[in-house]
Design goal:
Number of strands: 0
CATH topology: Fumarate Reductase Cytochrome B subunit
Shape: globular
CATH architecture: Up-down Bundle
Largest sheet: none
Radius of gyration: 21 Å
Number of helices: 13
Oligomer: single chain
Order of helices and strands: HHHHHHHHHHHHH
CATH class: Mainly Alpha
Helix content: over 70%
Structural class: mainly alpha
Length: 240
Amino acid sequence: MSVLYALLFYIAATIFFVGVGYKIRQYWRTPAPLKIPTTPAPVTGSGVALRIAREVVLFESLFKSNKWIWLFGFLFHFGLFLVTIRHLRYFIEEVPSFIIFMQPFGIVGGGMMVIGLLGLWARRFLVERIRYITNPSDHLILALLLMIGLSGLIMKFVSHTDIVMLKQYILGLIGFNIHQLPTDGPLLIHLLLVAVLMMIFPVSKLLHAPGLFFSPTRNQIDNPREQRHTAPWTRDLDKL
């Protein structure tokens, strides 16, 4: 079982990093032929950076659009952030005091994730216009994320696992030295679901995470009067 899960995570990590890297390269190389920032937009580069930061941290445009969807979305993403901080202890030999301090907040984050996902999934059924454009893949991704969150909470409150052995196993994977993996049912399910999430991430709508930084409606300066916007590929046409 330890070897099988090691192979699974090596494959999942390869697919994740190569796939996400490829998509980022594709986003980077895709020309933006039009100046299309969503107005009112910043007129300086620092203003654009601040705008994107507000989107990443506060989901500013979603807050202005729909408050209750923003609430569930923020609960999920902020909960995921806290859970990620909590899980860093498994990847670091000497755990910093900050991560130790954040451990209880990570448990709260797990609950926030589940509540947020339930709300976001409910809108797929209850809001007619959202239900109309919802694909089976949308339900599957939400179900996958929800099962990851629930299995994590089960390990905390119902069926505990040997976290010392688990940390040794994860650190061993990083160093290509496979150790014994705990065989608790909830843990095996949790790790399997995480591996599946890593593998489907590069081909799913979850790519909105890195894609936000390449959105021309968000990352462009509103200066069409001061400077003509030309895509790189149009310069070749001007030479003809």
